[in-house]
Design a protein that fits this description.
Elements (H helix, E strand, L loop, with lengths): L1 H17 L1 H6 L12 H8 L2 H4 L1 E2 L2 H5 L3 E2 L2 H6 L3 H7 L12 H25 L5 H26 L12 E4 L12 E3 H18 L12 H14 L3 H14 L25 E3 L2 E2 L12 E2 L1 H4 L8 H5 E4 L2 E4 L13 E2 H14 L3 H13 L15 H15 L5 H9 L9 E5 L2 E5 L12 H6 L9
Parallel strand pairs: 1-6
Antiparallel strand pairs: 2-7, 3-4, 5-10, 8-9, 11-12
Helix pairs in contact: 3-8, 3-9, 8-9, 9-10, 10-11, 11-12, 12-15, 15-16, 15-17, 16-17
Length: 455
């Protein structure tokens, strides 16, 4: 099935580059593998290597990780060499898979939706029959546009979103035409619209976790609204996921800390499975260490210590991937919904309920009988505690990067990042222009748009 999907994608790409209208007007035949049925279109969306992937720039850019001089000197791509020290120029003219993969996903989603329109227009299917596949395509398009905005556009701020530069929005298959950068507000508006539509079309949940579901759309909405600092809506959608009963927290007492990768793929916490793009710093690199500030904060009875950390001579590698492999998880899981719900409730004035939810998840992360529920005396203390535990729990998923950009907008929660490489200290200040990555030159050559300022 995967090989067949690759062939379909290649033919679709070539056909659409020649002329989109001519391709869509053509009837499929045996000599060309053009998607001619609902199963064909579902097969395109089932290609997880293309669609279920997020940028990994948030790993090397955040304080989840550190490396040493030997590890840094091993880096061989501009993305890793420059990304680790937050250089002004990251890609040095080279292509970026962290830019191209999301747009490939968006292209495939648009192909599917246009082909659905064609098949429905021919009378071969009704809208009801194609709704689930259309909902999947809408989800993937929203997911990829959102991820692009987290790396190549400024953080969402209500006051400036109508004027801040976002990313190009692709809503059809005319990839040969220039696409201007839209505003941050326009990008988020499309993401929210696509997710809202997909939520109405998708099944409650999917036994195949690489496929989007209604629960996945709700979880994405919780994440998007959190990023927008709309904590009322973030709470609403996180609560919906928690109340659904479709997923369950893992009891970390049931897992084996001696295993190479203690977490099973598609486990019962996973709402939507995705991986991250692969770089030398995030695929079995023995010199990529959990930041010591995080690892040293785990107590002996904290099971995250043994399940997340693989001891090395100079630090601890991260092995707590919800992929069950050496590849980093980039999807959405139930634990994140607990933290979104807890933070949102605290910010919305109900710290008691927020801490209650926090205690629910923490109890499953400590040795049985050793966990003492946490308590706080102020809303500020509650927020600090929720964010501290979230950072310690959702390691190496890219979530920390999203939170850094958002929390930096408030001086009380902003933090300065520092790294020392070969005797030189590098610093990333809160709200620095370098929290927005440059548009790759390959895109600028094909689609002349304004470059991000990073000096």
């Amino acid at each position: 099935m995967k090989k067949y999907t690759y062939i379909l994608i290649a033919i679709l790409s070539a056909s659409l580059l020649v002329g989109c209208e001519g391709f869509l007007d053509e009837r499929p035949n045996k000599s060309r593998l053009i998607p001619d049925s609902l199963d064909d279109l579902r097969a395109l969306l089932d290609n997880e290597d293309e669609l279920n992937r997020i940028p990994a720039l948030g790993i090397i850019g955040s304080d989840d990780m550190l490396t040493n001089d030997n590890g840094y000197n091993f880096y061989f791509t501009p993305t890793a060499i420059n990304g680790y020290i937050w250089n002004e120029d990251i890609f040095e003219g080279s292509p970026s898979i962290d830019w191209s993969f999301p747009y490939r996903s968006i292209f495939i989603a648009n192909v599917v939706m246009e082909r659905l329109d064609f098949l429905v227009g021919e009378g071969r299917y009704t809208e009801e029959e194609v709704a689930e596949v259309r909902g999947m395509a809408l989800f993937f398009r929203a997911h990829s546009h959102f991820n692009l905005a987290q790396y190549f556009a400024k953080p969402y701020q209500p006051a400036t979103a109508p004027s801040d530069l976002g990313v190009p929005l692709r809503i059809d298959t005319r990839i040969q035409e220039p696409s201007p950068r839209r505003t941050v507000e326009e990008v988020y508006a499309l993401v929210l619209e696509d997710l809202a539509q997909s939520m109405e079309m998708l099944p409650e949940w999917q036994p195949i976790r690489t496929r989007p579901s209604k629960r996945a759309a709700e979880a994405m909405l919780a994440r998007v609204y959190l990023t927008m600092q709309n904590y009322e809506q973030a709470e609403t959608y996180a609560d919906r996921v928690l109340a659904s009963g479709s997923f369950h927290l893992l009891d970390y007492n049931d897992l084996n800390p001696s295993a190479n990768y203690p977490f099973a793929p598609y486990n019962e916490e996973v709402i939507f499975h995705a991986g991250q793009t692969s770089h030398e710093f995030n695929v079995a690199d023995p010199s990529t260490f959990i930041h010591p500030d995080i690892f040293e904060s785990y107590t002996d009875n904290d099971l995250r210590r043994g399940l997340y950390g693989r001891p090395r001579a100079l630090g601890y590698n991260f092995k707590g991937n919800y992929t069950g492999t050496l590849f980093y998880f980039g999807g959405i899981a139930l634990d994140e919904m607990y933290f979104i719900a807890a933070e949102s409730k605290v910010r919305n004035g109900d710290s008691t309920e927020g801490i209650r939810i926090l205690n629910q998840i923490l109890e499953t992360r400590f040795e049985t009988g050793t966990f003492e529920p946490v308590s706080v005396t102020s809303d500020e203390e509650a927020l600090d505690l929720v964010m501290f535990e979230k950072r310690r729990s959702l390691l190496f998923r890219g979530v920390n990067w999203l939170d850094l950009r958002r929390l930096n907008l408030d001086p009380r929660t902003a933090r300065v990042l520092t790294r020392e490489v070969n005797g030189v200290t590098y610093t990333l200040e809160p709200n620095s222009n370098r929290y927005v990555y440059p548009i790759p030159v390959e895109e600028l050559n094909l689609n002349p748009i304004e470059q991000n300022i990073r000096n």
